[in-house]
Amino acid sequence: MKQLTVTVPGKAVISGEYAVLVGAPAIAVALDRRAVVTVETVTADYHVVSTPGFATGSW
Questions:
Q1: What distance in Å separates the CA atoms of residue 55 and residue 21, rounded to the nearest whole number?
Q2: Closest CA to 29 of 16, 44, 45
Q3: Measuring CA to CA, which residue among 2, 22, 25, 26 is closest to residue 12?
Q4: Nearest CA to 6 among 35, 28, 43?
Q5: Would you write out the chain's pLDDT as a tens digit for each of its 59 residues?
Q6: Would you say the pTM of this structure is higher than 0.70?
Q7: Residue 33, CB half-sphere, CA atoms under 13 Å: how many?
Q8: How far, in Å, CA of 24 to CA of 15, rounded?
Q9: Of 40, 34, 37, residue with least CA distance to 10
């Protein structure tokens, strides 16, 4: 099975989180926490999402 893992920095939006949807500015900062996602090919007819600290779901 092929597997791909990607990690990205977290962010915090100080102001304007939803305002950017209508073209307004926002202030955001990067955090020293990271999100990690791993995608793996499987031969099943369904998908499984597994997140540490949360229930595993499939569809």
A1: 31
A2: 16
A3: 26
A4: 35
A5: 788 889 999 999 999 999 999 999 999 999 999 988 888 888 888 777 777 777 766 65
A6: no
A7: 5
A8: 10
A9: 34
